[in-house]
Amino acid sequence: MMDSGSNYPALERAAQRGETACLLAYARAALDAVVQGRSQLRAVAHPLGFVCLPVLREGGDGVCVHVHGGSPGGSHGGRSEDGELTTSAIHAHSWDLISCVLFGAIGNVPVRVVDDARLPTHRVFAVTSTPDGVDDLRPTARLVRFSAEPVREHRPEEIFTMAAGEFHSTVDASGEPDGASATVVLGRTVQDAVDLALGPLHGLPHRVERRRLAPARSADIARGVLRRMDESAARPTARPAPRPRPRPVRAERGPRSGGGSGGSGTGADPGTPPGLCG
């Protein structure tokens, strides 16, 4: 990993100010480094059905590029790249999230989870991740039911946030035949927070290993994201309407035990694009 200096705080400040140009330029630099072979970053197939390119890990901070749906680098999407999902897609992060859409559209589904030991539909699983991409899923005593809220759609260059502990799922909102979209995601670990997922009522403890993709495949995916970003930027569509600035993330943080729900592994930091973030 290259020296990140103050890159994460600079990116975080830019996101809080709504400066999408900084986030897009940072993502482009990271992806181009993979394509050109200057970065040894390898993409990771996530059990939730997307591909993660882990750009930066620095203590409790992390930056990833997430590719959802049909992978722009080929015919295979994130879900076909990884193993079968062993829980539901409803989950909560142990870290505060700031995300900017690079292309396509992301549908975020907030989920209201209610404890109900009498008529539960799911059991809450705690997820502990290691830096080498192994997830240990442990059933807790918490029995729940849930209700999904309306989908919140996010289009290219939109920034959205999510606090640690908020249950949600992600759906395709792109309208594209392959359902492809990508985001650059900033995450800051919250002290004592735990990654959670809703699983089967009688599910047992188990382990899931995230598969690291080959360097050539990783470069292929990065190349495809760059191409789709260019196509999205050239499309004569109206820019998204101004939205309130993302709320600041929490100041407290703790050590990052591994990839969590946001990714896995260590990637090369391409460096903050000069003159864009501060």
Could you give a quick summary of the protein structure above?
With 278 residues, the protein is an alpha+beta fold. It has helices at 7-16, 20-36, 78-81, 215-234; strands at 44-45, 50-58, 61-68, 91-92, 95-103, 106-115, 122-129, 134-148, 152-154, 159-162, 168-172, 181-189, 195-199, 206-209, 211-212.
Describe the structure.
The chain has 278 residues and is α+β, with helices and mostly antiparallel strands. The chain has a single domain (7-234), classed as Jelly Rolls (Sandwich), CATH 2.60.120.10. 18% of the residues lie in helices and 34% in strands. It contains four helices and 15 strands. It has helices spanning 7-16, 20-36, 78-81, 215-234; strands spanning 44-45, 50-58, 61-68, 91-92, 95-103, 106-115, 122-129, 134-148, 152-154, 159-162, 168-172, 181-189, 195-199, 206-209, 211-212. The strands form two sheets. Strands 4, 6, 7, 8, 9, 11, 13 and 14 form an eight-stranded antiparallel beta sheet that branches. Strands 10-5-12-3-2-1-15 form a seven-stranded antiparallel beta sheet. Strand 2 (50-58) and strand 3 form a beta hairpin. Helix 2 runs antiparallel to helix 4. The chain starts with 6 loop residues before the first helix and ends in a 44-residue tail after the last helix. The model is unreliable at 1-6, 75-80 and 241-276 (pLDDT under 50).
